[in-house]
Amino acid sequence: MAKSTSSSSPAQTTVVQTLWKAYNDQTPDRLKFVDAFLFFLMLSGIVQFAYCVLVTNFPFNAFLAGFSSTVGQFVLTASLRSQVNPENKDEFNQVSPERAFADYVLGSIVLHFFVFNFLG
Amino acid sequence: MSMAYPLPSGLSPATVTNTASLIRIVTLALISGAAIASRLFAVINFESIIHEFDPWFNFRATKVLASQGFYEFWNWFDPTAWYPLGRVVGGTIYPGLMATSGVIYNILHALNLPVDIRNICVLLAPGFSALTAWATYMFTKELKDESAGLLAAAFIGIAPGYISRSVAGSYDNEAIAIFLLMFTFYCWIKALKQGSAFFGMLAGVFYFYMVAAWGGYAFITNMIPLHALILILMGRFTSRLYVGYSSWYAIGTLASMQVPFVGFQPVKTSEHMAALGVFGLLQIIAFSQLVRSHLSSKQFQNLLFVAVIGTGILGSLAIVGLTYKGWIAPWTGRFYSLWDTGYAKKYIPIIASVSEHQPTAWPSFFMDLQLLMFLFPAGVFLCFKQLRDEHVFVIIYAVVGSYFAGVMVRLMLTLTPVVCVSAAVALSTLLDTYIDPVEPLVPEEAAPSASGDDSTTTSASGSKKAKKPVFGLSESTTTQSTPKLRTRPGIFGLDARLVVIFNAFGMLSFFVFHCTWVTSNAYSSPSVVLASANPDGSQHIIDDFREAYYWLRQNTPETSVVMSWWDYGYQIAGMADRPTLVDNNTWNNTHIATVGKAMSSTEEVAYPILRKHDVDYVLVIFGGLIGYSGDDINKFLWMVRIAQGVWPDEIQEPNYFTPHGEYRVDDQASTTMKNSLMYKMSYYRFAELFGGGQAMDRVRNQVMPKHGPTLDYLDEAFTSENWIVRIFQVKKEDLLGRDLKSANAFSQGKKRKRSKPTVRRRAIV
Predict the structure, then answer these.
(1) Less Cβ around it within 10 Å: N or C end of chain B?
(2) Between A and B, how many residue pairs show a Cβ–Cβ distance under 8 A?
(3) Which residue out of B237, B239, B245 would a mutagenesis test of the A interface target, given it has the greatest number of A Cβ atoms within 10 Å?
């Protein structure tokens, strides 16, 4: 954090713009697809959380089940994304993309087994 | 290259690998056999019986599960416990243990093997100890290599620290929990190493099993986040960490909430917040890593600075705010008592009163771990030398485990696995160094030949030990290529090797003897059945507990309520099958205090309490005759303290001591003590037993007064052979409406001899 010397508010918007541009340029289409799903899950989670806070949390187990299913699916998908990301290839030398996808499917099944059980 | 001893040549590498793995499998099988066998002392010395207190409840619950099925078990409401409140059993237990036995029972019966449910319960703990040995092997293998793994498996198989909770018949949650603990940790390490969501998920599933099995699951709940946090602080964040932790947490937490007893705690109590916090932190870091990969460094740092500070403040504010508003429960008393060892004594005497919650005495470390205790620091030191992610885990575990083991006797159990693992690492490093046949180069020789020779010898020997670079020496082997006269440290000659190896094996065999001795002498007593030695050395079985419980079972109506101190609640429910006021579940402090008050007040005060609770029989444990020190008079002060916590005006602890502050039961005992129901019941007619001679309490070594206490409101109903269990019947109200004391006096004035129920009694000299 020592280097953060000259940061001002107009610079922030350009930072976000360059970030968006760099993201669009550098990310493979497959990962963009995964990211779209991640974005959807995030929205779904936010909606559920807002409902819980603003309206009611009454069947609390149902809320938890729904919310955990989005969060769980989000992190599993994010894990899949980092496992298949070509930049991380040397980090995951024991996990091939195919194996990652199999793990992902299995993890999702187990997750949703518990979600289903918890919905009540 | 000189060798200390010749190695067989001309073996193909495939043969060597196959032989090595065969030997490993056979060794593991033998270790499992040893682990099971050393836990069978209890069955051989006594019989196939459920031990101690809690296991009796687990056994009773398992019987319900096996005979009535899972749904009945799940919805089981037990009206006989905590009379008259009852207990919702299905929602207040960790069902993992019973479910495991139930599954085994059903599988065996499906295979037409009609095994008794009791034998499954008795032998479950030894069976799982074999699995623990295997899980420890897998865990240690990740740290070092297979040979260390085998040593660790052997250690955990026979270490008394673990045996103390897993002998045959000790049918308690810990019996399966240690296996689950080790296997969850193994999955976590594996997930972290490979970055595999599969192992993360497996860790989550076994975490779920652990949550269903033992309240100690909170140890995993905090160990894994702590490890992850320390890795992050060490600057070791990787995507593998993200994958492993996220998949474990997302699945494990949701799964843990399926256990009714845990319920919403994982999102509502402070004990679980660390895991949630680290989970959130990992998401932020992973996101910032993603952003960084798309941005040049300087812009990124500006953005990161704002984002991390912002989210950090927001997150901690949220948790503090939620705690403040009561959404997140603050830490429970049990948790505080881990940090402040005096806390429980001050505020929750019921927790402090349990013997296994006392701080550990120094000798018990040696008693439980012997040799391993000395190897333990060496192993931790070797972990520092390597310091891969999994070594960091072992170091954290060692520190945390040592602390907890020092705070509570029972937590010695969680320390034992890490002691075994690090001791195995230390010992196997020692053996690797000294068994390795390669001799160091003589300084005159040229250095460059060293590396070449090294590779040829390893390929030629092909031995497991020689192939790997020696643990502690790996750095020195890498620096060796520099053309200097520095040589690889090593051992010259056969004699130096043999001295160390013989010593090591000597210590190991002493360790085995020690473990066997401790197991057979200290940890294999069922405590339901006691053993003493006759003058000729043969074993004498004292079976008072079962005698008394079966008396209750056969001579009293099924609905008669038995009052005893809570220690014996589960045993009465399990063996006598009678309703009890309080039992080892200890969920209702007031109810226990009521019993404590009845025991520690005078008969006149206690009688209305007994009648209001429909008590028909009162059971006390009295060891004064044969010197059984775990009796109720010795536990009496806890009853007083717990009662005092609820009725500070009526019960005061100092009243039970002599003016000199001594706890006495003889002539000098305080009046309050002498008039207390517990004292009267324990020593009722005790002096008569000695036929006018000196009545001696052999636990407290005090001479009892000639004329013992009298009882007006209770009748002696049964006293067991060695007087350990005494049962008194509560009299009904007098038919003429007098109070029982005057009625008694009247009847005694009328006729000298009162008819008493005949009591089977025999003096033991």
Answers:
(1) C
(2) 123
(3) B239
Name the pTM for this structure. Answer: 0.87
Q: Left if phi > 0, otherwise alpha if psi is -120 to 50, otherwise beta: which for B425?
A: alpha
Interface test with B, best of A110, A117, A118 (most B CBs within 10 A): A110
Domain count, chain A: 1
Domain boundaries, chain B: 14-332, 544-750
* B328: chain A residues, CB-CB within 8 Å: none
**A80 vs B contacts (CB less than 8 Å):** 197
- Which two structure tokens, joined as six digits, stand for B437? 């046949």
Question: Which chain B residues in 209-238 lie under 8 Å from chain A, judged by CB atoms?
Answer: 238
Which chain B residue has the Cα nearest residue A8? B302
Question: Is residue A39 in some structural domain?
Answer: yes
What's the ipTM?
A: 0.90
The C-alpha angle with vertex B379 and arms to B20 and B465, in degrees rounded to 5, equals 25
**What's the CA angle centered on B719, arms B715 and B723, to 5 degrees?**
130
Q: What tokens were used for A13?
A: 């918007």
Can you name the residues that pair with B714 across neighbouring β-strands? B730
| Residues A64-111: tens digit of each pLDDT | 999 999 999 999 999 999 998 888 888 888 888 899 999 999 999 999
- Asked whether residue A1 is assigned to any structural domain, the reply reads no
Whether A3 is covered by a domain: the verdict is: no
What class, spelled out in words, does domain B544-750 have in CATH?
A: alpha beta
Domain of residue A74 covers 29-119
Say how far apart CA B425 and CA B411 lie, in whole Å.
Answer: 22
| Residue B505 φ then ψ, to 5° | -65, -35
First to last CA, chain A: 47
**Residue A4 belongs to a domain:** no
